[in-house]
Amino acid sequence: MPSLPRPNLTIASLLALFTHLLLPQTPATAVQVCGIVSCPGSPTNDLSLSPPLVQFPFWLNRQRQSPRCGYQGFDLSCTPGGDTLLQLPSSGEFSVKSINYYSTQSITLADPDGCFPRRLLGNFSLTGSAFRPLIPRRFTFLNCSYGADRSSGTSQGMPATLVPCLSEGNYTVMSVPTRYYSEGSYPCEELATVVVPLPWPFWSDVEDVISLTWDVPDCGSCRKRGGLCGYKSVNGTEVGCSNVPGTGLPRSAKYGVVLGVGIPGLLCVIGLASFVFGKIKAHRRPTRPNAADVSNLIAAQSVTISMGLDRPTIESYPKTQLGESRRLPEPNDITCPICLCEYQPKETLRSIPDCNHYFHVDCIDEWLRLNGTCPLCRNSPEDPS
Question: CA 288, 291, 294: angle at the middle one, nearest 5?
Answer without folding.
Answer: 170
